[in-house]
Specification:
Blueprint (H helix, E strand, L loop, with lengths): L4 E3 L3 E6 L2 H12 L7 E5 L6 H11 L14 E4 L5 E5 L13 H5 L4 E5 L12 E9 L2 E13 L1 H13 L5
Parallel strand pairs: 3-6, 3-7, 5-6
Antiparallel strand pairs: 1-2, 2-8, 4-5, 7-8
Helix pairs in contact: 1-2
The structure holds adenosine-5'-diphosphate (ADP) and magnesium ion.
Length: about 170
Amino acid sequence: MSITVYRSDKWMQQCIPGEEDMIRLGMFLATFLKGEEIIYLRGELGAGKTTLVRGILRGLGFTGRVTSPSFTLMNVYDSQPPVYHFDFYRLEGGDLTDLGLEDYLGKKGITIIEWPEIGASHLPQDALIINIELVEGDYDRERMVTIQASGPEHIKLLEELTQNVPTGY
Ligand code: ADP
Ligand code: MG
């Protein structure tokens, strides 16, 4: 299947038809990760954020279960490099300072955060920012995925992604 890519030097955008394509996008992303990245996943409930994380972990060779950390707030996967997967949804109005987030951000590993807007004031600006949008509000349909970056390392990563993204998975 062919998947059109829209790109500029500031963002890359792709229309992802179904769940399996979202997994493949995650696997593609994973091949460019070195282990020090921060990835923010934005998009409403059911947009496909955790599905994308599943793809990233599959791409890193992790064979265990990848679940939503919405109740535990965080899952750690002992992939190579390790992944720290946060979901701040249930922190709304709560306190992020107890979470020890700084400890993870300083460690070797990939930090992925769903609902970063909820913890925005505690989070670094430099990151890969992935926005997942429903098309016409329909949960069974394609998603528009837009990837942006902030800070030199993540901008370099976005450039690599943009240059290599397959238009058919
Ligand atoms: P979130 O973490 O954003 O709340 P999930 O990844 O847990 O979302 O759930 C997304 C749901 O939407 C899954 O049940 C998945 O099967 C479904 N889905 C339907 N179409 C797509 C698509 N194009 N991309 C991703 N998920 C899709
Ligand atoms: Mg989720």
